[in-house]
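Why does residue order matter? Because the sequence determines the fold. Keep that principle in mind as you read this record.
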Amino acid sequence: MTSSRRNFFWSSLTGLGASVGASLVGRAALAQDPQPQTSAPTQQGYTPVRTLNGVTLPYEMKDGVKEFHLTAEEFEHEFAPGSVAKCWGYNGRTPGPTIEAVEGDRLRILVTNNLKEHTSIHWHGILLPSGMDGVGGLSQPHIQPGETFAYEFTLRQHGTHMYHPHADEMVQMAVGMMGMFIIHPKNGEPKSIDRDYVILMHNWALHPGTYRPDPAVMQDFDLWTFNSKVFPAIEHMVARTNERIRIRVGNLSMWNHPFHLHGHQFHVTGGDGGRWPEAQWRSEVTEIIGVGQTRDIEFVGIPGDWAVHCHMSHHTMNAMGHEIPNTLGVNQAEAMQKVSALLPGYMAMGENGMAEHQDHSGHMKGPKNTLPMMMGKGPFGNLEMGGMFTVIKIRDDQPTGDYSDPGWYKNPQGTVAYKVSGPKRPSKAAPVDHSKMDHSQMDHSQMDHSQH
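Structure:
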């Protein structure tokens, strides 16, 4: 960890500076994407996939061949409002557009390199001729800047697959070059799918105040993403009660992820090797997805708002530091008074937990281009999440094929956890303008932040 990064996270937890600052904006605004979701033309026998915050790559039919075009290039990518980086990817986005086709299709994929170094594309898990496998120097010449190469092969399988470079792989993948490749079975699904979602997991080292991901970091990542977005900028999934839902998850990060769905027992029904025979399906609520693997999970929707996330807790946080001191139980009041003389307006946090960070992140100034650790609000208060987290909203009255956000779930009477004892909560106070407060005279370790 660099000295500047270590100092930043030390300050965010021990009071030697402000917690990470960024204005929290509405959930709907965070989920917006400049390019709307599109799908391949519907064909009999499958439901087109929907890539959260993403698109499906269009194609043209030319003499019986589906022709796609990918352009490798650099662009600015927004992880969430307040965090933008120079990334590499395909067709101006990371992950690149999802390729969607049908078993038996003949494909031609034209790849143009607009980077300043060579590249290639490996079709991860796809059965094809060796010379189309995309390993630069082994199965093909590298694609030099300004060149366009054609990959052409017939699909001999179905399943959830991925694509990524096999040239300067550590750098090119670390800065965003990857995408999903979905192949539907030619004879249809044994059980029809009503909603088919696609998620690609990745990690990023975007040091505070910087604008380019660091490819040299091996483990200490500070942004964990679904489709290169952090919560709450990740789109919600939606469905109708009793619809059959599939979530296809790929992992091209540098860590394994226990993928967890609330409120349901799902079946793991397939992965890189296609859809498994039903006798091999497993009933789970959490599925570990290893680096380089894909997994398909399927379930029938139960009404409610249900969390979907990686179960490694620090993967559901933003700007998460490492090698930082433990301040739990440490009274920082005396240090706060001394440091205030040098840093007016600072506040100490972490004595009783980290939840107060989200309350203060909207008005405490932090390093540029860095997100708060916790973001997003729900119907009952702060969600206190970031990173690999989203919600699937299932409703009795969600129209078939409608992916619009239905709002928060209206729980039936008597079905919400309720207080039976404990101290009286203070009445809801008017909003406080923290920017005009003198924090140097306050002992934040004794304050109730729940009303601010």
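The two ends are 34 Å apart (CA to CA).
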